[in-house]
TrEMBL record:
Its EC number is 5.6.2.3. GO terms for biological process: DNA replication, synthesis of primer. The gene is dnaC. One of its GO terms (cellular component) is primosome complex. Pfam families: DnaB, DnaB_C. It comes from the Bacteria. InterPro entries: AAA+_ATPase, DNA_heli_DnaB-like_N_sf, DNA_helicase_DnaB, DNA_helicase_DnaB-like_C, DNA_helicase_DnaB-like_N, DNA_helicase_N/primase_C, P-loop_NTPase. This is Replicative DNA helicase. One of its GO terms (molecular function) is ATP hydrolysis activity. Keywords: ATP-binding, DNA replication, DNA-binding, Helicase, Hydrolase, Isomerase, Nucleotide-binding, Primosome. Residues 179-451 form the SF4 helicase domain. It catalyses: ATP + H2O = ADP + phosphate + H(+).
């Protein structure tokens, strides 16, 4: 019975492939979607892949698709005999009656292609294990990469008529006006930043960079909490700091109890304990997921984010920080190339999952060597490619940090004016936003909120 089922399934697949090829030959309307959504390797028979490629190339050259044209083309490439000659093209041609419901046949082809790719990946993994030429860690990373690189969803039509796009844009503007919303992305919680960015947008890759001790992690946590307080789901990957320390920072920021008191549990009177317990109850309601796996690589981030997006409704992701993400390659590449590759991959993940990704980054020591300490995009550490990949690049700069030789948290003035410098904004304006950093609590607030 099992073999019979296999034969039946194989017959359905072959008939589906022939039908899709026939539709691609005769339906101008359906041809675009078929050529856009499938590739040659999605077909189970080499002959069908060859015919698909021939149709695609004729279409790219704006040539009429017909048995005659396909025959001439395949004769020119010396592949006509490989596909079974003119008789096989005629056989495929006979499968065309209508293009109605062709999407169902495309889906059958694509799902079978996923299965074959997965089977091949498992065979390759098994072979790697048997040869024992690589460590289990190397095999695991390669296995993960092979499986994650299998495309599991049909590509949406990325080409649209402007008439359709403008209607969507106008509808969005009308909805924003009706709802009284100022921004249409995930809020930063800072009025002037939101006025420039219109909120963090889906698919954006955002870099937040600064020198050590400028407050990158504190600012990122503030952004995460601000988003969560507006009902957004937040993923926070902490490669440097354990989750308990992150939550302690959030607790200090939200309770107004200084971080030093929370760390050493000294001087906690009744009033402070009341603030701590109240803030803790508030934090419990926040939809924030923290992953503090050290040495995580970009493929693992992709895998975990996919699961979070599916199961936990994630709207925004934070990564602390870029230079700590492990390489997925064991080749002797420069760290600059590795970081460039990671940066490109994070941009790809943001686009794929349709969420903004805010990734923290270090700056090179060249900042300290200059008389003018304000950071520039050229200061981004390890890779100039970060500048190309990011949709938004922000820097934190506190002049007070450089006013003393040794920065002391216990100085009399515990509030520092901080510049949030938006140096790159692919879809909007740039500028400098001034906020206040309450150092004792690790909290950033709008300057207008200081009484």
């Amino acid at each position: 019975m099992e073999n019979l089922m296999d034969l039946e399934q194989q017959s359905v697949l072959i008939d589906s492939e022939k039908t899709v090829l026939a539709v691609a030959m005769y339906s101008d309307k359906a041809r675009f979607n078929i050529l856009h959504q499938l590739t040659r390797t999605d077909f189970s028979r080499d002959a069908h892949g060859i015919i698909f490629d021939a149709i695609k190339k004729l279409n790219e050259n704006s040539q009429t698709i017909s048995i005659t044209q396909l025959t001439d083309f395949l004769e020119g490439t010396k592949e006509l005999n490989k596909i079974g000659g003119v008789d096989y093209l005629s056989d495929i041609s006979s499968y065309y009656y209508t293009d109605e419901g062709f999407e169902d046949y495309v889906s059958i082809i694509f799902k079978n292609s996923i299965g074959r790719q997965l089977d091949q990946a498992l065979i390759n993994i098994k072979q790697m294990r048997e040869t024992k030429q690589k460590s289990i860690e190397e095999i695991f990373l390669e296995a993960q990469e092979k499986i994650l690189n299998i495309r599991t969803e049909l590509v949406d039509d990325e080409m649209s008529r402007i008439s359709t796009i403008v209607d969507d844009v106008v509808e969005k503007i009308a909805a924003l006006e009706e709802n009284g919303e100022i921004i249409n992305g995930v809020t930063s919680g800072f009025t002037d930043i939101d006025s420039i960015t219109n909120g963090w947008q889906k698919g954006d890759f955002i870099i937040l960079a600064a020198r050590p001790s400028m407050g990158k992690t504190a600012f990122a946590l503030n952004l995460a909490v601000n988003a969560a307080e507006k009902g957004k789901g937040v993923a926070f990957f902490s490669l440097e700091m354990p989750k308990e320390q992150l939550v302690q920072r959030i607790l200090s920021s939200n309770s107004g109890v200084d971080g030093a008191s929370l760390r050493n549990a000294r001087g906690l009177d009744k009033d402070k304990w009341s603030k701590i317990t109240s803030a803790a109850q508030s934090i419990k309601k926040m939809d924030i997921v923290i992953d503090d796996s050290p040495g995580i690589n970009v493929l693992q981030i992709q895998s975990k984010l996919r699961k979070m997006k599916r199961d936990l409704r994630i709207d925004i992701c934070f990564i602390d920080y870029l230079q700590l993400i492990s390489s997925i390659s064991n080749k002797a590449e420069s760290r600059q190339n590795e970081v460039a590759s990671i940066s490109r991959y994070l941009k790809k993940i943001a686009r794929e999952l349709k969420i903004p990704i805010i990734c923290l980054s270090q700056l090179s020591r060249s900042v300290e060597k200059r008389e003018e300490k304000i950071p520039l995009m050229s200061d981004l550490r390890d890779s100039g490619a970060i500048e190309q990949d990011a949709d938004i690049i922000m820097f934190l700069y506190r002049e007070a940090y450089y006013k003393t030789k040794e920065y002391e948290v216990s100085s009399k003035d515990d509030i520092d004016e901080t510049d949030v410098i938006i140096s790159k904004h692919r879809n909007g304006a740039t500028g400098v936003v001034k906020v206040n950093f309450m150092r004792n609590f690790g909290r950033f607030i709008d300057q207008t909120k200081i009484s």
